[in-house]
Structure formats: structure tokens, C-alpha cells
């Protein structure tokens, strides 16, 4: 038997139908609570539209910054673009100044008619945290509360959620306070990336922290971290009591993971996607074509943007060093098609290839913070514009 199918069938034995329920985020009803995590430079409309065909409930647009949006930065507004037929217009907003955040939320509502706003308080990038931004914000409870309240008030009936990490490090945990602040400020849900800022993306996600947060607040909690296979989601939900799961790195180069997750969480049994290199090739071409249709740029520029995706698509697969090298240097759609035609279409993904890490890695490391940042959590602070660098977060 195919080792992938054999492993899946074995793990499915532990699942009982009916263990997950629909989740309401304000007026948005998620029948199966599986969410595509917002990832800067990744979850643009081409990628979201590709993933949406595989069946998850909510696909969040990539992170944009409030200040750049308010200042009419054209690149930021392009990043915020939605598809004409996108069923739920969901976007992640990052901001450090309540006034800019409120203005940005109103602009998103007025111009893009957004249905859902998620806010990011998990970015561990040193150039952000050393100025008090990103994952450093939850340390200052008053600042976090003022930013979230500004977003919720400006959003009015549009649901707002927030995403955050466990804390700065194991000695400075903030996730329970962040959850309480979100609930008290009127958020309809939260997502916890169960690592600290110091952890970056190393080690294992602390699912015990997700469970503790679930027991602390009443609004839905989505768990994020270490979901690489369908049964990971089952185990997380069983272990934590989370309302649902948010998938980031696990779906990179594998958008069909969403179909597997939905099938397993709905208790449908082993109705899963059998990945082969033929499937990988077809999805790669489809993805690259969608990018070319979306971006008003020359083909070489767009395909260069696709190179990182190409690396994720073949991660863990037996394609050989030479084909990988050519994919990393690809500059045109015809060239991409030519390379993928050399794949062994009947090859299946080795079991050890399923959990190959994609995108962010690294850690642990010391978190860069402003001087005396940890001294007084209730201190009133105002952050400089440098804390709002447009970087990936979470």
C-alpha cells in the first residue's frame, strides 16, 4: 500500500465525527473552522484563489500596515486587493498607533468593503520589536488595548480578530492577557501562534498554551503551529479544545492540504488528495498563470516572484539537484512548463517529505526590545513610526 495512504488511514482511526462545530465570527459562519493564515508576500489573491478551490472556510489576505495604507502607498493598496468573486474579504492589518489604525479600518471598509479584519501582534523581526512593535506590543497592555479598541470601534459591525504569540520568551508570557484584552475590546476571536518571539519558528508549538487560553476566555480560539498533516489538526483540537485551526507554513507548496483537513475534520474518512509529482506540476503552472494574470508587471518579474513557491512545491520530493537549481533560476512560464515536464509524474511524496519545513525557520534567539521595555506592563507608551515596518509577522 502507498505509505502516505497507509499512514493516513491509521491516523484516521483516532478521529470521531462531530468533534468540531461551525464557528461564528460575528456574521461570518465557518462551517469547518480551517483558516489560511495571512502571510506577507504569500497570501495574495492568486494564492488565495488557488487555495480556495480546496475547501477551507476562511482565507486571509496578507498583512498590510495601517500607516502605509493611510498615506496612500500604492504598493500597500495593491497588496490589499481582493478578487472580484472572493466570498469573504478578510485581511490582516498591522498598526502601532490607534489613530492610524482606526483610519485604516474605515478606509478598508469604505473602499474595499471588507468582511473581516485580523490584527497582527506576533511579528518577531528585530527591526520591529526593538522599536516596541510586533510581538513586543502585548507586553504593554494599555497600548495593546488602545490599538485593538480603536480597530473594533472603527469596524463597527465588521468582525475583528487578533493574532499573537505566547509572549517575549518563557519568562515573559503575555498570551492570557492578550486574550482577555481581545475579548474585553470586542474581538470575536483570537489566534495563538503557540511559540514565543524568542522561539521564532524553532522547536515544537506549545499546544498546552492554546488549551490554557481556551479555558481563560469565552471567544473562539484558533490554534496555529505545527500542523503539517491532516491528523495534526485533529490532535490539536482534541488536546486544546480550540474552536479551529489556522494553517501557515504547512500549506506552502501544498494547497491541497486544505481539502484533506476539511475531509478529516468533517469526519468523512480517507477522502484525501493523493499527491504525485504530476499534481505538483499542474498546480505549479496554475499558480504561476494566476500570478501573471494578477500582477501588471513583465513576465520575468512575476515568475521571479514565483521562485520561492517553486522551491516549496518540490520540498521533500525526489526531483534531483539539477531540476531544483533550474527552478530556483526560472524566469518564464514556458521555461517553468519545460522543467515540470521532466518530473517523474508517477512519483509519490515520501513519508519523510510531508513534514519538511518551508519558509521561516530559525531560533531561538534573544528578542531585541527598547530599553526597560519589560519593566512596567501598565506603562503608557507611544511608538515611533519605525515600529511599523512592513514586514512579515506571526
Describe this structure in words.
The chain is of the alpha/beta class and 394 residues long. It has two domains: 22-271 and 364-388, TIM Barrel (Alpha-Beta Barrel), CATH 3.20.20; 277-347. It is built from 15 helices and twelve strands. The protein has helices at residues 3-12, 45-52, 66-70, 74-79, 98-112, 126-129, 141-155, 175-185, 207-216, 230-240, 257-265, 277-294, 299-313, 321-328, 333-340; strands at 23-25, 28-30, 34-36, 58-65, 90-94, 116-121, 160-165, 167-169, 172-173, 189-193, 221-224, 244-247. The strands form three sheets. It has an eight-stranded parallel beta barrel, surrounded by seven helices. A two-stranded antiparallel ribbon has the order 1-2. 50% of the residues are buried. Residues 1-6 have low confidence and may be disordered.
Amino acid at each position: 500500500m502507498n505509505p502516505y495512504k497507509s499512514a493516513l488511514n491509521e491516523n484516521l482511526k483516532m478521529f470521531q465525527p462531530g468533534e468540531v462545530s461551525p464557528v461564528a465570527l460575528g456574521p461570518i459562519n465557518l462551517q469547518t473552522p480551517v483558516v489560511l493564515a495571512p502571510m506577507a508576500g504569500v497570501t495574495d489573491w492568486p494564492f488565495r484563489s488557488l487555495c480556495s478551490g480546496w475547501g477551507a472556510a476562511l482565507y486571509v489576505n496578507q498583512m498590510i500596515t495601517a500607516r502605509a495604507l493611510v498615506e496612500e502607498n500604492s504598493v500597500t493598496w495593491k497588496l490589499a486587493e481582493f478578487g472580484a468573486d472572493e466570498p469573504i474579504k478578510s485581511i490582516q492589518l498591522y498598526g502601532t498607533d490607534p489613530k492610524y489604525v482606526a483610519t485604516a479600518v474605515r478606509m478598508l471598509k469604505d473602499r474595499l468593503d471588507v468582511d473581516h479584519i485580523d490584527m497582527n501582534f506576533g511579528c518577531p523581526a528585530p527591526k520591529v520589536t526593538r522599536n516596541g512593535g510586533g510581538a513586543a506590543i502585548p507586553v504593554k497592555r494599555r497600548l495593546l488595548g488602545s490599538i485593538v479598541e480603536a480597530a473594533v470601534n472603527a469596524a463597527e459591525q465588521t468582525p475583528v480578530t487578533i493574532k499573537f504569540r505566547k509572549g517575549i520568551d518563557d519568562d515573559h508570557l503575555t498570551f492570557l492577557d492578550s486574550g482577555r484584552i481581545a475579548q474585553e475590546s470586542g474581538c470575536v476571536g483570537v489566534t495563538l501562534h503557540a511559540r514565543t518571539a524568542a522561539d521564532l519558528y524553532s522547536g515544537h508549538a506549545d499546544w498546552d498554551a492554546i488549551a490554557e487560553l481556551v479555558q481563560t476566555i469565552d471567544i473562539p480560539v484558533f490554534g496555529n503551529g505545527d500542523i503539517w498533516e491532516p491528523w495534526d489538526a485533529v490532535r490539536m483540537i482534541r488536546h486544546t479544545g480550540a474552536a479551529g485551526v489556522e494553517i501557515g507554513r504547512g500549506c506552502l507548496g501544498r494547497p491541497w492540504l486544505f481539502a484533506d483537513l476539511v475531509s478529516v475534520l468533517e469526519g468523512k474518512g480517507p477522502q484525501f488528495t493523493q499527491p504525485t509529482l504530476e499534481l505538483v506540476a499542474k498546480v505549479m503552472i496554475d499558480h504561476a498563470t494566476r500570478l501573471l494574470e494578477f500582477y501588471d508587471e513583465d513576465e520575468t518579474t512575476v515568475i521571479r516572484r514565483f521562485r520561492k513557491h517553486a522551491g516549496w512545491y518540490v520540498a521533500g520530493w525526489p526531483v534531483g539537484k539539477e531540476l531544483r537549481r533550474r527552478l530556483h533560476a526560472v524566469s518564464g512560464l514556458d521555461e517553468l512548463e519545460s522543467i515540470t515536464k521532466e518530473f517523474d509524474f508517477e512519483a509519490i511524496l515520501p513519508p519523510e517529505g510531508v513534514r519538511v519545513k518551508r519558509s521561516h525557520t530559525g531560533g531561538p534567539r534573544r528578542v531585541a526590545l527598547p530599553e526597560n521595555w519589560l519593566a512596567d506592563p501598565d506603562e503608557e507608551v507611544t511608538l515611533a513610526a519605525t515600529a511599523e515596518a512592513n514586514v512579515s509577522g506571526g
